[in-house]
Design goal:
Elements: E1 2-6, E2 9-14, H1 22-29, E3 48-51, E4 54-57, E5 70-72, H2 86-93, H3 103-116, H4 122-129, H5 139-149, H6 161-164
Parallel strand pairs: 1-5
Antiparallel strand pairs: 1-2, 3-4, 3-5
Helix pairs in contact: 2-5, 3-4
Length: about 170
């Protein structure tokens, strides 16, 4: 019997082949489907989770390489009572997602950024988020949500175009 430390819990993953990518264990074995499969080659960021607090691509990490590491998925970000993190709330307030497919990975990368750098510049945001692709191209909303969560800007309702000052795409 193998176990992983995921979202603060020790979870049994059974007798899975140690070469199985973490992504498939999360989704298929544990039912944590918030982490998405995008490309399978660690290029799109849809499968981003935190490994010991660092954003990593779960599609490329064999579970056999994990022992006592702390893994956090999108399901583990909100408080036990359902209270959203600042970045999750900003994502809602700024209407970031269109299709939403990449958003769990985007939020995981943004969360790691703000933990390391609570006052990021545009260049810091661009660098931290560069490994996350969004086919809907909501990058300006993503940047704005990160700034809102960091307290650098006031939240603006998506439909309030005047307040957004042309930043919406």
């Amino acid at each position: 019997m193998a176990t992983l430390q995921i979202n603060g819990q020790t979870l049994d993953i059974g007798t899975i082949d140690p070469s199985t990518p973490l992504l498939w264990v999360l989704r298929d074995t544990l039912g944590l489907v918030g982490t998405k499969y995008g490309c399978g080659i660690a290029q799109c960021g849809a499968c981003t989770v935190h490994l010991n607090g660092e954003p990593v691509r779960s599609c490329q990490i064999p579970v056999g390489n994990l022992s006592s590491e702390q893994i956090t998925t999108i399901e583990g970000l909100a408080g036990a009572d359902g209270t959203l993190t600042k970045i999750q709330q900003a994502w809602i307030d700024e209407d970031v997602p269109q299709c939403g497919y990449c958003q769990a990975g985007q939020i995981m990368s943004a969360t790691a950024l703000l933990r390391k750098n609570p006052n990021p510049s545009d260049a810091d945001i661009d660098a931290a988020m560069s490994g996350n692709l969004c086919r809907c191209a909501t990058y300006t909303r993503i940047r704005r949500a990160i700034k809102v969560a960091a307290g650098q800007q006031t939240a603006t309702a998506f439909y309030d175009a005047a307040a957004a000052q042309g930043e919406r795409a």
